[in-house]
Amino acid sequence: MAETDLERFVEAPGRAEKIKEVRKMIDAKGIEYLYLQFVSVTGKIMGKGIPADHWESVAMKGFQLVYGATVNLFTDRAGNYLGYGPEAAELVGIPEPETFMQLPWAPQIGRFYCTLFRNREEKENPGGYLTSDCRGNLRRMHEDFQKKHGRSLRIGTEPEMMWLKFDENGKPKDGYSKPYCYHIDQFESLRPVSMQVIRYARKMGLDMIQGDHEDAPGQLELNWMFDDVLRNADRLTTYRQICAQVARENGIFACFMTKPFMGVSASGCHHNMSLWRGGEDQFVKCGNDEKDLPGMRDNYMYVKGGENTFMPDDDDPQMPGKEGLEAIGGVVHNLQALTAVGCSTVNSYRRLWDTGFWAPVFADWGFQNRTTGLRVSAPGRFEYRSVDSMVNPYLMGTTLLAAMDDGIDNKLDPGEPEERNIYEAIEQGKQVKKLPMSLGEALDFLENNEVVKRGMPGEMYRLFHEYKYDEYARFMSTVTDWDNDTYMECLP
């Protein structure tokens, strides 16, 4: 019988030594229980827990869970399970020892990210990679991109979110601070929260670099150093878990909903992108846990090696190099379909409709131009702005890789950078594609775009399409307060 993907993964060179290293760390740190987690199609963190005594066994055999967990085990409007029915097989999740991390707020618990596989007994492709595993897809697609183009994608995200108070009924309501952008006094009002997030983040391997109070009530942005696309996605996922925990400790609510309030800024999650080639990355320890052992890469940060191909290659410091322009040309040409991934909820489009708050709605690019969907935020990197706080960073990573691959293969020209306010440019006659302005419209663009769909291989596109069209249908079939306020007494 041919060796399966699962068997090759479990028996990879050096993995047995890493498993032993984890056992040493479990014993040294007094860890009693392990969280084995993966990420669903919507970015929700799923998984199982096991006693730490069983680490070696689960590291080799994995755990089983219904396929539908990758689609949140959620039902559609008719009550049918989305993606997979109850008759489907169970996936196999294999923990990655190099992602081991002790939870700083619960030191008796360790955490792993896992790669998902088809069941060993499946009749078709037994033990194959599970293509509804968005995280596994990102690793494999990035490896293929690196082999094909000799370049790696690095991303730094800017995760805005809001800290809210609970009302008398226990529901999240008002922001904890006032909506004053960059105001240090409002930043200070959330200091107990922000400093606890930063402490936990540093202990979990995030190299925190800066933060500020944003435009909306209770809105903070805390940033960490950019990194490999997969590692950055893991860190954004970890950051969300940290915020949820800090909120529990402080009796407030960590809100990643894109637009909970109209009339103030929404929460974006700009992606700053660059492509690198050559050079060796090195790891430097971050955090302050002296019990860390070598080989556990999440306890370390990158010292970036190689050459940034987005850097200018002539005398114009504002103009990216030729290779960067081709890659970003792919993003610009596919931006309407990419919006379905970057703005993935019904609520996302409240951000685009509430004008005056710098949310981009046009598929164009410029240097330091916040009115376009992409901008050169600094020499050597592009800021992709049409993405918000609800994004699944793994799907965003795979679809951006697909778009950049298209740009490089076909030498796509993004056009001249727009230096004008895009609205003034349009008034002066410029023809610019507009981004979709509803989830339904965005999903239609995605359905008709084969390039972006390549970033959702195997079953992933089917699951995303099914889940998100049902979400949009639920919205369209709901009578809201606005409907009643507007139409209840409009006739006769």
Q: What labels describe this entry?
A:
492 residues, single chain, six-stranded mixed β-sheet, eleven-stranded mixed β-sheet, alpha+beta
Question: How would you describe this structure to a colleague?
Answer:
This protein is α+β, with helices and mostly antiparallel strands. The protein has 16 helices and 19 strands. The strands form 3 sheets. Strands 7, 8, 9, 10, 11, 12, 13, 16, 17, 18 and 19 form an 11-stranded mixed sheet that branches. Strand 9 and strand 10 form a beta hairpin. The radius of gyration is 23 Å and the shape is globular. 47% of the residues are buried. GO terms for molecular function: ligase activity. This is Glutamine synthetase family protein. Its cofactor is Mg(2+). Belongs to the glutamine synthetase family.
The main pleated sheet reads as:
11 strands, mixed
| Anisotropy-based shape | globular
Helical fraction? 25-40%
Mean pLDDT: 89
The helix tally amounts to 16
Radius of gyration: 23 Å
Summarize the entry for a quick read:
This protein has helices at residues 5-10, 15-29, 55-61, 134-149, 184-189, 191-203, 229-250, 322-333, 335-342, 348-353, 393-409, 422-427, 439-447, 450-453, 460-476, 481-487, and strands spanning 33-39, 45-51, 63-66, 90-95, 101-102, 109-117, 152-166, 172-175, 208-213, 219-224, 227-228, 253-255, 269-277, 282-285, 300-303, 307-308, 365-367, 374-378, 381-384. By secondary structure, the protein is α+β, with helices and mostly antiparallel strands.
